[in-house]
Amino acid sequence: MKIATWNVNSVRKRTTNLVEWLKSAKPDVAVLQEIKAQEAQFPRLEVEAAGYKVEIVGQKSWNGVALLSLHPVEITARSLPDPETDEQARYIEGRVQTPQGPLTVGGLYLPNGNPIHTDKFAYKIAWMDRLAERTRQLLASEEMFVLGGDYNVCPTDADVFSPAAFANDALCQPQSRQALRTLLNMGLTDAVRAFDPDGPCYTFYDYQAGAWQKGNGLRIDHLLLSPQAADRLTAVGIDKAERGKPEPSDHVPVWCELDVA
């Protein structure tokens, strides 16, 4: 079973790119971030024509996440714990059945957090604390799960083309990295690093300053696997070529395959 994540950076602008990628990559489940669309604005007909069931947590103009599945899916969450003061659409979670039992896939769009000396950074860290709480709940089930999405965190200096340039960026702050390590220290596996411990493996190339052409990227899109899912991990990929297509997102898809036959 192939699980993918992609920050599409406005699904209405990238509908053609998205549908072409779905048809070629054929993920069983894909989580999308930054769709920047409400329910009625999402290109549901086009995505359903490609064979996918569509579930959306939308928001006008900003944020927004979606879960696409080739299989019947039960939506298990549309926000993280304690959502009453949070109006931002940043999390969706669903469960699909496999021959080896249920597999839960969470799709998340973690706050950017810049500038770091503002409430935006505090919101980012608080949001990561809520994600850790949901992770604890999922781990208690002792079932397979994957938490995929745009984490807006470069885990180490190896995940950013210029550590010096990002020294004051929320993506590389010690608090951001520690919050991500908290998830990993619970027993989750970073799928990409399980297959490529040292390479740059960038997933984001800014539109500015010729970042794509220069290869100046960041690794901020991650797939974190529960122990039960990590035991079945067989392949990982980053569809870097998507960044070179017309009207691309500044992110590229990341995927993993699990042997659940």
Helix proportion: 10-25%
Give a short account of the largest sheet: 6 strands, mixed
Could you state the order of secondary-structure elements as H and E? EHEHEEEEEHEHEHHEHEE
Ranges with pLDDT <50 over ≥5 residues?
none
Structural class: alpha+beta
CATH architecture: 4-Layer Sandwich
Radius of gyration: 17 Å
- Quickly count the domains: 1
> In angstroms, what separates the terminal alpha carbons?
8 Å
What is the number of strand segments?
A: 12
The coarse overall form would be globular
Question: What is the CATH third-level topology name?
Answer: Deoxyribonuclease I, Chain A
Q: On the 0-100 scale, what is the average pLDDT?
A: 97
CATH superfamily: Endonuclease/exonuclease/phosphatase
Q: Reading side by side through the largest sheet, how are the strands ordered?
A: 3-4-2-1-12-11
Report the total helices.
Answer: 7
- Identify the CATH class: Alpha Beta
- As a percent range, the share of strand residues is 25-35%
Can you give a write-up of this model?
- It is a single chain.
- The N and C termini lie close together (8 Å).
- The chain has seven helices and twelve strands.
- With 261 residues, it is an alpha+beta fold.
- It is 25% helix and 26% strand.
- It has a single domain (2-258), classed as 4-Layer Sandwich (Deoxyribonuclease I, Chain A), CATH 3.60.10.
- The model has no long low-confidence stretch (mean pLDDT 97).
- The strands form two sheets. Strands 3-4-2-1-12-11 form a six-stranded mixed β-sheet. It has a six-stranded mixed β-sheet with strand order 5-6-7-8-10-9.
